TrEMBL record:
The lineage of its organism: Bacteria, Fusobacteriati, Fusobacteriota, Fusobacteriia, Fusobacteriales. TPR repeats lie at residues 162-195, 268-301, 580-613. Residues 1-18 form the signal peptide. Keywords: Signal, TPR repeat. This is Tetratricopeptide repeat protein. PROSITE patterns: TPR. The keyword Signal applies. Pfam families: TPR_16 (PF13432), TPR_6 (PF13174).
Amino acid sequence: MRKYLIISLLASYSIVFAGESEDFKAVDNLYKERNFKTALTESEKFLQKYPESKHQKSMRDKVAKIYFLEKNYKKAEELFKKLFTMEEKQSQKEEYASYLARANALLNNSNSAMFYLREIKDEKTFQKTFFAVAQDFLAKENNEAAKKAYTEIINNKYENYKESMMGLGIVYYNLKDYDKAIYWLSEFSKAMPNENKEMVSYLRASAIYRKGSTDEAIKYFEELANMTPASEYSRKAALYLIEIYSNRKDEAKVRFYLEKLKGTKEYNTAMTMIGDLYVTKENYEKALDYYNQSNDKNNPKLIYGEAYSLYKKGKYEEALKKFQSLKNSDYYNQSIYHIFAINYKLKNFDEIIRNREIIRKVVVSQVDTDNIIRIIANSAYQVGNYKLAKDYYGRLFAVSPDKENLFRVILLDSQMLDMEDLRIRFNQYNELYSNDTEFKKDVYLYTGDAYYKAGDPERAEQIYKTYLNQYTNTEVISSLMSTLLEQKKYDEMEQYLSLAQDESSVNYLKGIAAMGLGKYDEAEADFQKVLASGDQSLSTKVYLNRVRNYFLAERYNEAVQAGEQYLSKITPDKEKAIYSEMLDKIGLSYFRLGKYDQARSYYSKIASMKGYEVYGKFQIADSYYNEKNYEKAASLYKEVYNNYGETFYGEQAYYKYIMTLSLTGNTDAFEREKDNFMKVYPNSNLRGTITNLTTNMYIESGDTDKAIESLNNSSSNTDDVAVKETNTTKIITLKLQKKDYKDIEKYIAELPTEEERAYYLAQYYAAKKDPKAVKEYEALLQYDKYKAYASKGLGDYYFDKKDLAKAKKYYGTYATVNKNPDEYILYRLGQANEKENNLKMALTDYKAVYSKNGKLANDAMLKAAEIYDKQENVAEAEKLFTKLYAVKNNKELKAYSMEKLIYYKLVKNNTKEAKKLYDELRKLDAKRAEKFKAYF
């Protein structure tokens, strides 16, 4: 029995070893055949299947090297690390150290890369690897690490030290240290005069140009650009020369170098580049002229430049179409603000409100987010949807707290008589903006009026009197009169009425009242009556209120004119508050007109007044911020914070300074200053805003994991339901974009409404191609907001399932919901009708598509032409094929269209035209033309 057992065990072991050996040979053969993709998969299986195999090390070695070759450096690093630790043979260990040094360099792990490099004792291997590591650092834009590596190689005159001079030159170029870049590139040229001559010349010329020595750079660029034959670097040099001569307005030279680029891809680049240059100079007509000369009409960068130029020229409809056409490009996010702004200018308020949710689904800068929210809020206000307007003004204040945003919320609370929220916001205003003069009168007036309307005249009275303890204002007095009359406090009424008994005061108060009611022309007429009366006691107040009136009416030029006229009539020392507000209103008017230099001249005067220094300096910084001169703005914000950190504007300045760091992509400084802000202002209302800013910065940099982490932190640190909801929606959107479905259902379940949950579940299931999406689409059909989205989803689902009746039903629903259906839907309807042989309807659908002149226009026109052809409707078919024949850059379509047209011409015995087309077709596609040879 024991004998049989031993024989049995030996047999089983033989089978195991035979299986392992055969598997190893099979994998090894895959490597020999260079079938690396399959080899990698089979190697991984082998390692799992035979963990104790003698081939484990050999197989790991192969797998690690394949991962390295396939640029999966993380996986390669993990495997080489194990091999390095296990290996005892020094030469093999050093080979693994070499791979580890390079893998870590390519993963931007500088310290680890250098650690493994120093583990290499063989001098030749060490020097060869060192240069490769330096090159890898450079390739991954790890310029500081590359600089250290190249410098050590050069100083020690290791192998490739001459080539390292060029690398070091490129590093210094990347670091914008152009003098050192020029030096090392020149040293490389001396050391290796026949190597990379054109590239080095180009880089050296670029560095000279970047350091501001334009005339010197021109010589080198021209030498390159005029080389024969032209090369990649000569064309790049020509592009630089076009930029330089465009800036110098030397049109002859621009034309000369453009001529050299004709017929190359750089020609289109040049057209776009010159167009962009003219945009920066605000010469939008010239910009459009150059954009139009490019043949690369579908280039999103060019389309964006065209759209922006049209927008600045006031051609809003054209601009809108172009911005909207960027939907599936990288430029769509930065187009979103302009789409909203144009719709607002065109008074498409309903359209704005309809598309408001897009802000949750796209990633835009914080500045654009704030502006879009403001546009949505203003649109809702314009159409009388105060609840929605308040919601968006509230969001705006939560993200970008300032007195104007808070004032808007208070205004809407007062109109909606939301007394609990009004109480909170009014207290908030007094805590945050106790020194405010711009909105104070209106805040107190609207809040008091709301309490009066809500049946609480006593509280209204308190609010009016609190204001009147500091200021005298006819509107506030008038409202106070109403509350006193309600409470029959006649003695007190007399006391306040005595403030305005003469005719001039009455006219003045009438003017104030009219201004408060937005009757600006009426107010101006009343103020003019006071001035005509010659009452000097009111003249200064009238001066200021005329400027206020123009400012409120958004007649900024007149506000400036009146303000500058009256400034000399006001005594700054005696009438400091009025004088400072006059300066402020003039400055703000220039600011609103985009005349920042003039605005700054007035803010500088405010900054020189005792007690107003911080406000003036903050406004100067803000003007540079609005001008998008973030470097200058950052410097001034920091100065305000350093000198006035304990004040409201000091805190605001620090926050805005942090914003500039975000906008300029200075991540390290942003993280440092953000953390410091939280320590300096532990109770700041801006903490949540900074958290949002952090999130947006991570989103814009593409680090979605950190963005999600930041959004989760934001939700954990707030009780605001709206903020939590917005954060959750953004997390879901980011996960969908990244195809990271972990925990996504948990986040979707946190959404407050069934409507939103169904919408995001539909997206999630659709992304996974899960049929459960159908159920969610069907649920969404009951909601107007998502009916179009759901209809399209269902239409696509049933179309793919070849259930054309249902597909048409849902596409039809989409077309009903959208007055201007998407061309994709119409095209799908055409396809469905054509498959059902409902050719008449199919033609109607295809015509609707190509009439839009969109991306599917040619496809739809071809479909329609083929239907006419089948119906032997030669006249209509010929019309469409003639149009298709004229389509540029589509050889196949042109040849096919010509084939059809030749046939039609022959049918009509028009041999002359047929021959012309035949000759052209022979040149384009001789094989197609062959079938017509017998006719000619």
